């Protein structure tokens, strides 16, 4: 299997959210949590990133109720607060 290695610029105010499949595959009475529910939680945050991880974990807990988890749940959020002084922000994206 060949995977592409890509680069992109994270601009001031942007946030990168990485997650394992344990988040989207978490099962509850209504089925899997899925990307749709994750995107809904992100959308409700309205750019206020400080509490996003807690919001996702709370939504997962509500969705799974007392169901047993079969996978890890890992989230990583990185937010860029401002651009370095003197830098010019551009939309550079590249894949190898």
Report the average pLDDT across residues: 87
Radius of gyration: 16 Å
Distance between the termini: 15 Å
The strands making up the biggest β-sheet line up spatially as 1-6
- In terms of DSSP E residues, the strand content is 15-25%
Q: Would you give an account of this structure?
A:
- The protein has 96 residues and is α+β, with helices and mostly antiparallel strands.
- It has a domain at 22-81.
- The protein has helices at residues 21-24, 34-44, 52-64; strands spanning 6-8, 15-19, 27-28, 31-32, 75-79, 93-95.
- The strands form three sheets. Strands 1-6 form a two-stranded antiparallel ribbon. A two-stranded antiparallel ribbon has the order 2-5. Strands 3-4 form a two-stranded antiparallel ribbon.
- A hairpin with a 2-residue loop joins strand 3 and strand 4 (31-32).
- The two termini are 15 Å apart.
- The relative contact order is 0.32.
- The model has no long low-confidence stretch (mean pLDDT 87).
Topology:
Blueprint lengths: L5 E3 L6 E5 L1 H4 L2 E2 L2 E2 L1 H11 L7 H13 L10 E5 L13 E3 L1
Antiparallel strand pairs: 1-6, 2-5, 3-4
What key phrases describe this protein's structure?
about 100 residues, alpha+beta, two-stranded antiparallel sheet, about 20% strand
Provide a quick synopsis of the model.
By secondary structure, the protein is an alpha+beta fold.
